[in-house]
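// run 5 | inverse folding | seed 20
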């Protein structure tokens, strides 16, 4: 593990998902002391919502770009390069209104770019252009929605399936959901949900270490 991209998508400073991403970073740093962590705080520094001008910059090839368009394209190129550079990606993702936060959704609007992260073949359809690597989604939920597995989806969890689909659409097909359920259900369910998520994070990082040792 040389490079880990970590994104926090919670608008809250004292967020559960931030505790989870921090745990992931701590565990990875202990196992891989030379790891480079690229940290992008989408919650604290949200990107601009796309509008007519930004859609032109990010999804088309206008002859000239305004300053704002140039800046958005540059930032987008950089965020895509971060995904390219990383050996694994971690996303701290709160459940908001049964799906992802607005900040994460806006980041997706800035990085899901034709010709950059996805292509389209008229015969075979869409094709992801990023090279595959694990994406760990550390999902904090107020209530209980299962473990985000595709085999046993919860009907109100519109986060897990969506993230699996959109990352897969860009070529990142190995999306692993680690859920912290019951965060707003009182002390006991919260402690239980956190313990489960912590154990899964530790397990995931141990597996990364074992993979690296076997390579
Ligand atoms: C705007 C908003 C919408 C929320 N929607 C849901 C929801 O649909 N289902 C749920 O179980 N919890 C919901 N919650 C609770 C959060 O999922 C819960 O507090 C979680 O811990 C947030 O993650 P964070 O602590 O990382 O910010 C919502 C919270 C906020 C602020």
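// decoded
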């Amino acid at each position: 593990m040389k490079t880990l991209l970590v994104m926090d998508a919670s608008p809250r400073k004292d967020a559960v998902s931030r505790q989870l991403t921090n745990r992931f970073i701590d565990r990875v740093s202990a196992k891989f002391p030379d790891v480079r962590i690229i940290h992008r705080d989408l919650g604290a520094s949200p990107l601009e919502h796309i509008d007519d001008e930004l859609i032109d910059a990010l999804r088309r090839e206008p002859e000239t770009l305004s300053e704002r368009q140039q800046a958005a394209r540059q930032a987008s190129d950089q965020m895509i390069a971060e995904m390219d550079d990383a050996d694994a990606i971690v996303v701290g993702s709160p459940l908001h209104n049964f799906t992802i936060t607005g900040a994460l959704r806006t980041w997706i609007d800035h990085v899901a770019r034709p010709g950059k992260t996805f292509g389209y073949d008229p015969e075979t359809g869409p094709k992801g252009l990023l090279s595959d690597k694990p994406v760990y989604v550390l999902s904090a939920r107020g209530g209980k929605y299962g473990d985000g597995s595709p085999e046993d989806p919860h009907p109100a969890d519109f986060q897990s399936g969506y993230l699996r689909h959109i990352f897969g659409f860009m070529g990142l097909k190995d999306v692993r959901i680690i859920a912290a359920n019951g965060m707003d259900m009182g002390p006991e369910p919260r402690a239980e949900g956190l313990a489960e998520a912590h154990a899964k994070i530790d397990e995931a990082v141990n597996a990364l270490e074992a993979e690296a040792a076997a390579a």
